[in-house]
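Researcher: Quick test of sequence recovery. Tokens follow.
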């Protein structure tokens, strides 16, 4: 395994300052993560207020996801070059301003443009966070604790966004799901400027590989656009866009092999841990994002829950994830090793999804939703910190920002892919049953069951891949 290179930034920051810096980084990340889910529950209210059509409403989400997923890798590399603190604080400021623009939007055009600006700010913020966490905590036990805290914030933030979206929309209006970011963003930015140490080794972007940056950004944005729009684009258009994205990736790879100062050092992928962990993450996150989306729809369209009730029903998941990650994950990884903890977590995720695949039309939250939700929460609380630690374990200091951007990119791609595939399968099954004369609620429930069965297969694939690919190197790294 590649040895991490010590840097001056690591040796100059005292323990109290490191943990204060972690709090600031988590606060910035939480605001970005919340925004990914908080909009979902408010979509009907936004549609009614601004007059969006069905296809047009999707762009409230897509306008954020495309720049966010497409720019993470570039932002991570630029953070390595110009300084991760500078990239983080600039992204935080941009995200906060864009949130205010979203909150005051009275027309479709302004909201979509502001959402795209949010995606840019979110990419700049999130791309460098994990690299900064790794740089702050070089000692393995402390790093495991820090990664557990960061992972808890990320995992809990996703589910918490569903609750806050429903609560704010129902109690006030949809504008407040964006305006609430203003005080949080201002406080987080002030704290970041004061607490985060500058990057002594930060250079400049002079001589950077701009053609390579254009190629990879275009490839990633086109990939995300193709995934999130697959249901509306048609088979031939989707295939053409996917082929174009692949061609851009090939051109980028060729460029990186020849450029004097490549944007992405291809040697980064020689790390079996980093490459394998990112592949596992795509599959794992696809199932978890699918659960959040399909699970919320099951509660609303099959069990008849309202917005606030749906959000409240999801609260046990972030609570369990937060408690386990903060109290047990780091110690469990330290005792049994990241590899074993990851496999145990993925096994629990498979079990939870298998139970959800039986969710009946006359189901009950207490018996049919809560138990598998808790299994998924425990599994994710075990798997995510272990997977993050494995991914970053073999990364050199000068590549930490890039590796962080890559890890976050695969999260977005995995989540987008899971949502697109599982929701399309569910809708197709439901429409087929409706065409055969099935009752609407029963047809909807069976569509969701199919989606969860496919999610089980994907989760099993993640488990097998982790067991095979990560075993040898993970064992050496313990």
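Model:
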């Amino acid at each position: 395994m590649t040895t991490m290179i010590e840097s001056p930034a690591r040796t100059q920051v005292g323990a109290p300052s490191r943990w204060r810096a972690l709090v600031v980084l988590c606060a910035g990340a939480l605001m970005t993560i919340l925004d990914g889910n908080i909009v979902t529950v408010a979509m009907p209210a936004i549609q009614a207020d601004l007059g969006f059509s069905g296809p047009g409403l999707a762009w409230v989400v897509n306008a954020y996801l495309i720049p966010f997923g497409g720019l993470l890798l570039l932002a991570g590399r630029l953070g390595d070059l110009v300084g991760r603190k500078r990239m983080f604080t600039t992204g935080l400021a941009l995200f906060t301003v864009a949130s205010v623009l979203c909150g005051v939007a009275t027309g479709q055009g302004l909201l979509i443009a502001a959402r795209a600006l949010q995606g840019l700010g979110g990419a700049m913020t999130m791309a460098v966070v994990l690299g900064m966490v790794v740089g702050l905590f070089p000692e393995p036990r402390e790093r495991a604790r820090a990664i557990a805290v960061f992972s808890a914030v990320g995992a809990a933030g996703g589910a918490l966004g569903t609750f806050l979206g429903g609560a704010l929309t129902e109690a006030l209006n949809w504008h407040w799901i964006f305006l609430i970011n203003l005080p949080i963003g201002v406080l987080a930015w002030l704290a970041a400027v004061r607490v985060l140490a500058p990057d002594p080794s930060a250079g400049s972007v002079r001589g950077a590989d701009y053609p390579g940056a254009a190629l990879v950004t275009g490839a990633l944005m086109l990939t995300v656009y193709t995934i999130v729009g697959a249901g509306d684009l048609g088979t031939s258009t989707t295939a053409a866009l996917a082929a174009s994205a692949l061609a851009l990736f090939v051109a980028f790879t060729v460029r990186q092999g020849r450029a004097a100062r490549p944007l992405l050092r291809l040697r980064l992928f020689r790390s079996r841990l980093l490459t394998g962990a990112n592949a596992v993450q795509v599959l794992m996150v696809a199932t978890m994002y699918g659960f959040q989306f399909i699970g919320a729809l099951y509660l609303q369209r099959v069990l008849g829950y309202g917005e606030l009730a749906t959000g409240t029903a999801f609260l046990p998941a972030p609570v369990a994830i937060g408690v386990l990650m903060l109290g047990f994950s780091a110690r469990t990884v330290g005792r049994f090793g990241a590899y074993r903890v990851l496999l145990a977590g993925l096994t629990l995720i498979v079990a939870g999804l298998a139970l959800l695949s039986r969710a009946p039309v006359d189901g009950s939250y207490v018996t049919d939703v809560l138990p598998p939700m808790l299994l998924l929460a425990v599994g994710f609380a075990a798997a995510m910190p272990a997977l993050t630690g494995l991914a970053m374990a073999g990364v050199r200091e000068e590549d930490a920002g890039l590796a962080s951007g890559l890890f976050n990119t695969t999260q977005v791609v995995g989540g987008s892919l899971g949502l697109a595939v599982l929701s399309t399968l569910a809708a197709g099954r439901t429409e087929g049953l409706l065409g055969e004369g099935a009752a609407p609620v029963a047809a909807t429930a069976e569509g969701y069951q199919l989606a969860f069965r496919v999610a089980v297969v994907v989760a099993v694939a993640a488990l097998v891949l982790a067991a095979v690919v990560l075993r040898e190197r993970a064992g050496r790294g313990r």
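Residues 15-50 form the longest helix (36 residues).
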